[in-house]
């Protein structure tokens, strides 16, 4: 109940604006104004207990506590580094971002692009901060994280060596906004070292809440230059890089002074008249602050002598600041990929500006439950989370498919918190998604989780271009009106991870998560027909003690089925009902030769009830045990429960896998029966009246108490081996 109440409370807070840039979530519960006032009242500078100035904040491996790279590091406040520190001097500019001894050029390229748009910059870097008025050693910044804005509080102690900042610093030695921004982002991700290596797109999105797209510069669209110019005019953030063919080329410098596998930001585009013909130029910046392009249109290149002198003076700034011009044709030849973060996903191929609709879903891939892998693994692929979108209105324009009505959607699948998990050796997963058109006969069934047969017979209408180990994969799709299923997945099955899926649509669309069940649904499980109070007494009761269960060989089953049928018909009479004592006779007759299948007490009393349930479950279990190994895996468990008539939410499926599967994700027959009994009990309670308690129980969702009931003695037993 507490979990449900917390969920309702959060939804109410979100409805009131919590998570917006104007009302950001307080990261780790730290409120900037409250903490600053406490420091001012006490006269003590802030020391952040959540991100202390100690070795753990630096890193865990290359910047770990005993690493040579961390020797001689002293944490100092800006007031200890210069006589008159400033937060921002003359406005935040691209030259305020100079890379230090941390491999986070991707982040620095994003920060440099951020300075081009003052409105965006001051959403991330609030202006109400200073080393003079109200100074208390505390600063705050705001970042977008998986659908909401969060406020991150830090103290201003920065890592230094020999009196110089170790990491990001400003060209102006007394300016500290960029260094403090880097520290806040390091706190958000667990440490400074967690920021090593990445895609500029990641920084773009965390600074804007926008959504990014990739362009392969070896196969560029014909209108790419127009796309870039429009993106710059719209305030979008742009980055580019040069791919390497082997690891040894990383950050290698070419003969023309370009750095491979290094993130550059794109800061301008201009078309000039060069010797009587138009020449497309593009401006880039290296976050190192130096090492500039030495080819055509670089600083002091002869090409500048053949354009209008006034334009030359405006564009050709001769300085070793890391910023330079080059021709667009050289840009395409030299660089490999372009990243554009759209502040809104307006189509960059059209001059029209329009507002898109957004649906955001959060989900998890759980080993043994919802981590089904890609389409290469058909036995488990169907168990991945599924999301349905209904596209009803076609776009106003049809640029990509002339004459064919379609709906444009932009999808972004983002895995969560992978940087924080680098500390424990977990890197980004390879992720992707596929979009399937839902047949009309399955339309409007929001609770239908499509199974293995559907995916065997249907090909995706759209999919991500490839599975990649980036934080996010994105793509556009142009689809006819209808209902579609979006299936996000990791490349390999059995990979745990959290994700959020964003679905932007040009026109209004309906989007929803496909549950495996609606809370309170009653299963229609196959049962033996029992006498008056037999099965109600069975529901929810534990076996008197555990049994070891080994399913029989299929050939033996046929013979036993015949024996069972004969005895059952003899004892049940015309009404086809038998009592518990009569069932005992049947079971003793059938299992007298099968001692190895059920070991323990002979069937009698309470044990007889459990055996009755076993008979109703045995056929389902054997059908699901395709390899006749005597066990089923956690993904097959979902199939078995579906055959039994249970349709369950992802949360319940995850609980089942955690409780009943062993370390190898196998579930034996004993565990299957125990799970079935608990589910029957829970669903019976959800339905209303139970004979044992003779009282009405409320309908509703699966609460924490029900999940604990399903888990049983999980805390005591753990996973069963």
Question: Top keywords for this entry?
Answer:
single chain, 721 residues, alpha+beta, Cathepsin B, Chain A, Jelly Rolls, 4 domains, 22 helices, disordered N terminus
In short:
The chain is an alpha+beta fold. Helix 16 (580-591) crosses helix 17 (606-624) and helix 17 crosses helix 20.
Q: Would you give an account of this structure?
A:
This protein is globular. The strands form six sheets. Strands 7-12-8-9-10-11 form a six-stranded antiparallel sheet. The chain has a five-stranded antiparallel sheet with strand order 17-16-19-14-21, with no helix packed on it. The chain folds into four domains: 24-197, no CATH class; 211-342, Cathepsin B, Chain A; 357-514, Jelly Rolls, CATH 2.60.120; 534-717, Recoverin, domain 1 (Orthogonal Bundle). Helices cover 30% and strands 19% of the residues.
Itemize the secondary structure elements and their pairings.
Layout: H1 2-15, E1 25-26, H2 32-42, H3 55-58, E2 74-76, H4 78-81, H5 105-114, H6 118-124, E3 138-145, E4 148-155, E5 158-161, E6 164-165, H7 177-189, H8 200-208, E7 211-216, H9 224-233, E8 237-241, E9 264-274, E10 277-285, H10 309-315, E11 323-327, H11 328-334, E12 337-342, E13 357-365, H12 378-381, E14 386-391, E15 407-415, E16 431-437, H13 452-457, E17 462-463, E18 472-479, E19 482-490, E20 497-505, E21 509-514, H14 534-538, H15 554-572, H16 580-591, H17 606-624, E22 631-633, H18 634-643, H19 650-660, E23 666-668, H20 669-687, H21 704-711, H22 714-717
Parallel strand pairs: 1-4
Antiparallel strand pairs: 2-5, 3-4, 5-6, 7-12, 8-9, 8-12, 9-10, 10-11, 13-20, 14-19, 14-21, 15-18, 15-20, 16-17, 16-19, 22-23
């Amino acid at each position: 109940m507490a979990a449900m109440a917390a969920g309702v409370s959060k939804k109410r807070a979100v409805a009131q604006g919590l998570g917006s840039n104007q009302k950001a979530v307080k990261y780790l519960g730290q409120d900037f104004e409250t903490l600053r006032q406490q420091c001012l009242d006490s006269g003590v500078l802030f020391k952040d207990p959540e991100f202390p100035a100690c070795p753990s904040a630096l890193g865990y491996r290359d910047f770990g506590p005993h690493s040579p790279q961390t020797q001689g590091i002293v944490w100092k406040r800006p007031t200890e580094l210069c006589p008159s520190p400033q937060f921002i001097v003359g406005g935040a500019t691209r030259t305020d971002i100079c890379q230090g001894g941390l491999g986070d050029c991707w982040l620095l390229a994003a920060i440099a692009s951020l300075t081009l748009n003052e409105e965006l910059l001051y959403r991330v870097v609030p202006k109400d901060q200073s080393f003079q008025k109200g100074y208390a050693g505390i600063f705050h910044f705001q970042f977008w994280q998986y659908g909401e804005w969060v406020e991150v509080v830090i103290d201003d102690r920065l890592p230094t060596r020999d009196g110089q900042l170790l990491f990001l610093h400003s060209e102006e030695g007394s300016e500290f906004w960029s260094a403090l921004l880097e520290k806040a982002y390091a706190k958000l991700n667990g440490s400074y070292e967690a920021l090593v290596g990445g895609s500029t797109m990641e920084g773009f999105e965390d600074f804007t809440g926008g959504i990014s797209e990739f362009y392969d510069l070896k196969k560029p669209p014909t209108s790419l230059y127009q796309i870039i110019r429009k993106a710059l005019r719209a305030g979008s953030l742009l980055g580019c890089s040069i791919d390497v063919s082997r690891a040894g080329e990383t950050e290698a410098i070419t003969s023309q002074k370009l750095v491979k596998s290094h993130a550059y930001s794109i800061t301008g585009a201009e078309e000039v008249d060069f010797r009587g013909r138009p020449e497309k130029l593009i401006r880039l910046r290296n976050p190192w602050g130096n090492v500039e392009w030495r080819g055509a249109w670089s600083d002091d290149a002869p090409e500048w002598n053949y354009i209008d002198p006034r334009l030359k003076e405006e564009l050709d700034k001769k300085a070793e600041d890391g910023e330079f011009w080059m021709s667009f044709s050289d840009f395409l030849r030299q660089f490999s990929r372009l990243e554009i973060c759209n502040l809104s996903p307006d189509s960059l191929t059209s001059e029209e500006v329009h507002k898109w609709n957004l649906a955001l879903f959060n989900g998890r891939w759980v080993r043994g439950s919802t981590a089904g892998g890609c389409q290469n693994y058909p036995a488990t692929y169907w168990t991945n989370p599924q999301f349905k979108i209904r596209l009803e209105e076609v776009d106003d324009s049809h640029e990509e498919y002339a004459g064919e009505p379609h709906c444009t959607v932009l999808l972004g699948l983002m895995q969560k918190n992978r940087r924080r998990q680098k500390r424990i050796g977990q890197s980004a997963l390879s992720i992707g998604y596929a979009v399937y058109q839902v047949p009309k006969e399955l339309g409007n069934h929001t609770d239908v989780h499509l199974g293995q047969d559907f995916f065997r017979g249907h090909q995706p209408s759209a999919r991500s271009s490839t599975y990649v180990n980036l934080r996010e994969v994105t793509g556009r799709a142009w689809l006819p009106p209808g209902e579609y299923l979006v299936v996000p997945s990791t490349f390999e099955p059995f990979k745990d991870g959290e994700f959020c899926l964003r679905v932007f649509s040009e026109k209004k669309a309906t989007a929803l998560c496909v549950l495996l069940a609606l809370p309170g649904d009653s299963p229609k499980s196959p049962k033996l027909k029992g006498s008056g109070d037999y099965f109600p007494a069975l529901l929810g009761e534990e076996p008197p003690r555990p049994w070891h269960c080994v399913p029989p060989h299929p050939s033996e089953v046929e013979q036993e089925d015949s024996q069972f049928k004969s005895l059952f018909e003899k004892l049940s009479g015309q009404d086809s009902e038998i009592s518990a004592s009569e069932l005992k006779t049947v079971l003793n007759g059938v299992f007298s030769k099968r001692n190895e299948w059920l070991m323990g007490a002979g069937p009698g009393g309470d044990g007889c009830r459990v055996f009755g349930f076993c008979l109703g479950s045995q056929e389902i279990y054997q059908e699901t045990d395709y390899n006749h190994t005597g066990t089923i895996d956690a993904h097959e468990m979902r199939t078995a429960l579906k055959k039994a008539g249970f349709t369950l939410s992802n949360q319940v499926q995850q609980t089942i896998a955690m409780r009943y599967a062993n370390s190898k994700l196998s579930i034996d027959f004993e565990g299957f029966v125990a799970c079935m009994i608990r589910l029957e009990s829970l669903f019976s309670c959800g339905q209303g009246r139970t004979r044992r308690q003779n009282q009405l129980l409320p309908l509703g969702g699966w609460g924490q108490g029900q999940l604990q009931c399903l888990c049983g003695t999980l805390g005591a037993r753990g996973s069963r081996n």
